[in-house]
Amino acid sequence: MRGLSARRIASTALCAAFLVGISGPAALAADSAGEHSRAAAPRASLPGADRLLAELDGLGDLSRLGELGSRLAPARDLATAVLTSDNGRLAPADAKRLGDAAEDALAEASAMIRSARSAQAASGVQRAADPASDALAAVQKAIEDLLKSLTSGDVGQVLPAVTGLVDGLLDLVNSLLKDDGLTSTPGTSASAATAGTLPAGASEGTASDAAAAAPAAPASAS
Question: Is 205 helix (H, G, I), strand (E, B) or coil?
Fold first, then answer.
């Protein structure tokens, strides 16, 4: 009986070893194939991302707008990061870092505009409307909406939110280019002060270059 039991144990162990020898490589191969499939999966872009990125590129070098323009760069960076991400998904840490930078910079821009308006009022300039301040407030709201969409887990909310941010930035840059009260105020001045509006897909650099290339008016005869 003892000999029979030993033979049964040995036979069972042999079968188990045989099965492991067969299933082990197959399992490893399956895992390897799964990892390769995940690594090879293409990144998906948000619908219309290329068009929105082209509009952001059309803003050109924001530093041409002076100190105010430099405060808009973090907002553009946030929009660009979302549009170049995998289907509008950003890591929470990246979303917070970019969002905080954009919000802080726009808060500084808002303070700069308020200071410029106060200086204008002190010199007797009265304004019935303030399109630049309104456009800036719209961009701040768009960033708030975008950050909420990124943390909601609902990818469907990201596209309208980032579209709103891009549209808001275009409106804000146009408003700044048309606002002589800001472009001529120290601390907010823009080198593109001679530009009118920023056409869709064109940078303020184009307008500035065109203004520089314009012939100078002839001097009046004495």
Answer: helix
